[in-house]
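A.,

Following up on our hallway conversation. Structure tokens first:
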């Protein structure tokens, strides 16, 4: 770092995104992107919006709000659109958390939570998962701190039932509970309806996964009007035009093609089941994933070795160095052909390992 870098960030460890290599063509199963292109209407409307890029985007996202309400039933004062769901998460950290209002989240979860906490100078506690990587709900009941939970969790893929989420929210009425539902469309149950019952709940989602728009950067938060107003104060104090015109148009197009989204999600679920069944027969141990990825380890091969050997064969998966999960790899669910290629490569590696 330079001599000008602020001391308040000297101990900041930034989030590490998944590899985006350009050295060769890979089967890319490492960043939980959709294997399908965006809905045709999303592409069409984004291209039309590109013709007017000399103009600022609508900071209120009015047209996007209209179709969102038609699809999901939540009005403009209950929703805030952001530059990916990372931004709505950061808005929540900025708006509701400080030294008097610390944060808790699981010790194995989305890697941005500790980064946001440190970036904003917020004390935080990481609560250990159970040995099977499930969240012990009792650890969060009446804890008296702001809570961030990814549901389904990442990178484990395990989902809490809605009844457990409600218990956590109801038992912490004086604290904010943020439920990060980036992967909810692949088998989880959304807590969004509970935002009308509990004024301390924020539910965040993204267009990156199920709606094939990772490159567009569009996320949103659903909460009570009061909480949305608070986060809008942060938005308008940092970047009023946080959602660009092309992304907004693509979002409108995607929401007009919900059948396309649902069909793609179902295909991902089918491919996940197919791949997990085959990997189980090979001896892999896996969590009960409700996401568009598989979290797996094999008792006879080191997790990093498997990751490296797959990479050498042109297949990227995600490996983590955290000792608690270092034997596991997170594998994005792709097309059936990509899953077949993965399984063939794994079979070769395991055979090679047994020689």
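Then the amino acids I'd put at each of the 355 positions:
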């Amino acid at each position: 770092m330079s001599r000008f870098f602020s001391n308040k960030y000297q101990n900041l460890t930034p989030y590490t995104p998944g590899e985006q290599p350009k050295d060769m063509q890979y089967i890319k199963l490492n960043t939980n992107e959709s294997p399908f292109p965006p809905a045709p209407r999303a592409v069409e409307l984004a291209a039309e919006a590109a013709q007017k890029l000399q103009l600022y985007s609508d900071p209120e996202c009015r047209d996007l709000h209209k179709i969102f309400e038609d699809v999901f039933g939540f009005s403009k004062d209950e929703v805030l659109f952001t530059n990916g769901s990372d931004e709505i998460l950061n808005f929540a950290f900025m708006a509701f958390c400080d030294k008097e209002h610390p944060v808790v989240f699981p010790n194995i979860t989305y890697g941005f939570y500790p980064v946001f906490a440190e970036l904003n100078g917020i004390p935080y506690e990481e609560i250990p998962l159970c040995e099977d990587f499930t969240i012990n709900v009792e650890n969060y009941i009446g804890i008296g701190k702001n809570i961030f939970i990814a549901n389904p969790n990442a990178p484990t893929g395990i989902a809490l039932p809605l009844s457990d989420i409600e218990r956590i929210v109801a038992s912490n009425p004086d604290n904010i509970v943020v439920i990060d539902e980036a992967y909810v469309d692949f088998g989880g149950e959304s807590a969004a309806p509970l935002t009308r019952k509990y004024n301390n709940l924020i539910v965040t989602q993204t267009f990156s996964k199920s709606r094939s728009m990772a490159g567009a950067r569009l996320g949103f938060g659903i909460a009570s009007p009061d909480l949305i107003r608070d986060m809008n104060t942060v938005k308008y104090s940092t970047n009023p035009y946080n959602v660009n015109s092309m992304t907004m148009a693509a979002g409108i197009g995607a929401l007009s093609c919900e059948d396309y989204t649902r069909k793609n999600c179902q295909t991902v679920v089918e491919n996940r089941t197919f791949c997990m069944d085959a990997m189980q027969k090979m001896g892999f141990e896996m969590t009960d994933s409700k996401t568009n990825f598989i979290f797996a380890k094999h008792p006879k091969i080191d997790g990093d070795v498997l990751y490296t050997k797959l990479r050498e064969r042109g297949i990227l998966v995600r490996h983590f160095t955290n000792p608690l999960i270092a034997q596991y790899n997170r594998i994005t669910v792709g097309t059936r052909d990509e899953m077949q290629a993965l399984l063939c490569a794994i079979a070769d590696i395991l055979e090679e390992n047994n020689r």
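The mean pLDDT is 97. Curious whether your intuition agrees with the design.

B.
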